Amino acid sequence: MSILKVSIRQLKAARALLGWSQEDLAKIAGVSLPTVKRLESADGLLGGRDDTIDKLRTAIENAGIEFLHDKGGIGVRFAPKK
Fold first, then answer.
1. Who contacts 16 (Cβ-Cβ below 8 Å, separation ≥6)?
2. Are residues 18 and 27 in contact, defined by beta-carbon separation less than 8 angstroms?
3. Full domain range(s) for residue 55
């Protein structure tokens, strides 16, 4: 996996696209609910332990979401079908 930096707003937007609650994300990613709540209560880049960030990103990406970082800005979208 690349060392792509994900913002907290991207994390929240990804959850919204998937229709996931914080509880859903915590369960699917294998992290605690208080961790998800704490991380989402801030702003800026997603912080915390690298393994926690990897678990959150992997869960969201495995569900079909792509994190975008390009000249046009940052965002999230459903990943193109392969």
1. none
2. no
3. 8-78
Q: How far apart are CA 64 and CA 51, in angstroms?
A: 20
Contact 31, 55 (CB under 8 A): yes
Give a yes or no: residue 22 inside a domain: yes
Q: What is the DSSP letter of 7?
A: B
CA distances from 76 to 16, 29, 37 (A): 10, 18, 20
**pLDDT reported for residue 81:** 80
pTM of the model: 0.88
Q: What is the CA radius of gyration of the chain?
A: 12
Q: What is the CATH number of the domain that holds 56?
A: 1.10.260.40
Q: State the Cα–Cα distance between residues 53 and 60, nearest whole angstrom.
A: 11
- Give the other-Cβ count within 10 Å of 30's Cβ: 11
